[in-house]
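Whiteboard transcription, Tuesday session. T.W. wrote the structure tokens on the left side:
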């Protein structure tokens, strides 16, 4: 399993939860199927957009069961594993492997600050608990204990830690990481970066919430980057940047869930105490979706949404 290769566009899936606390399995399965049909290269449940910090373990497990079943082996499923203790991280990783995931997105939650040795020990234990490829997740904007360059360097020498998804706003940091790991680890961008620029400096794709809303455009952008058609890639990147700006401005789950509801997916609102997307945010998402012709019944997307309810 550890030899699996990840690249391209991996949408960070939302977690549709009913008012009764049940996972909306049919909605999530439909979203996964539509994204795969749109050409995405993988699915990432339980990332930041998936509200992992607000879900119970039974909810997390059910989400993974639904996504793995919906994927049917057509694309990799890289599941988020987030914990404050090493023991819990190891438990979750083993469960994700047992449930049929293709890879692990390893996330460290921390209440008290940790030393570099503590951070290294957590990720090392999670990786060594499974045979799956591991993607490290680093987000200094939200994480109390981030991955430093020396720790990333050390972790890149563990055989199945093969990728890193960096959600900082610093593309220069990504270049520093790429230089430091010398090919032992590949880098995915996030919404905070300009994906085309990350591809230009050596990235292999991006894992991001906005890809849930514009999967075909995201795949087209990736293909243009891979073909080296940078003028057309940047032209498309500029036209899509409104989604990235909205994602950075509003609560990530509220932004993507609000956009998906506009597209006809009954994903519900973010889990309390998070607030739904504001009226201003809804208007901003509606304008961005309309400009990209990805609202139901508009432009090139009319046929794709004909069966949505």
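and on the right, the sequence the group agreed on:
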């Amino acid at each position: 399993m550890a030899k699996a290769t990840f690249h391209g566009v991996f949408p960070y899936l939302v977690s549709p939860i009913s008012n009764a606390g049940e996972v909306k399995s049919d909605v999530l399965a439909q979203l996964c199927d539509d994204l795969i049909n749109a050409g995405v290269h993988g699915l990432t449940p339980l990332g930041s957009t998936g509200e992992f910090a607000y879900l119970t373990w039974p909810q997390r497990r059910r989400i993974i069961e639904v996504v793995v079943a919906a994927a049917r082996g057509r694309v990799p499923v890289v599941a988020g594993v987030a914990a404050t203790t090493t023991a819990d991280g190891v438990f979750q990783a083993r469960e994700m492997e047992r449930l049929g995931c293709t890879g692990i997105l390893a996330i460290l939650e921390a209440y008290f600050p940790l030393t570099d040795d503590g951070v290294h020990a957590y990720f090392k234990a999670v990786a060594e608990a499974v045979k799956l490829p591991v993607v490290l997740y680093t987000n200094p904007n939200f994480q109390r204990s981030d991955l430093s360059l020396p720790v990333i360097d050390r972790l890149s020498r563990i055989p199945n830690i093969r990728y890193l998804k960096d959600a900082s706003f610093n593309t220069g940091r990504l270049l520093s990481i790429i230089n430091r790991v010398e090919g032992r680890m590949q880098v995915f961008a996030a919404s905070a970066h300009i994906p085309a620029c990350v591809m230009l400096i050596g990235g292999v794709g991006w894992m991001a919430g906005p890809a849930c809303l514009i999967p075909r455009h995201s795949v087209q952008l990736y293909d243009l980057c891979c073909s080296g058609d940078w003028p057309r890639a940047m032209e498309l990147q500029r036209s899509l940047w409104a989604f990235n700006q909205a994602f950075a401005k509003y609560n990530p789950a509220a932004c993507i869930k609000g956009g998906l509801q506009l597209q006809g997916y009954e994903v519900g609102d973010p889990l309390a105490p998070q607030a739904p997307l504001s009226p201003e945010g809804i208007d901003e998402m509606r304008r961005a979706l309309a400009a990209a012709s990805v609202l139901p019944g508009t432009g090139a997307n009319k046929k794709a949404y004909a069966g949505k309810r």
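Someone added at the bottom: The chain has one domain: 8-227.
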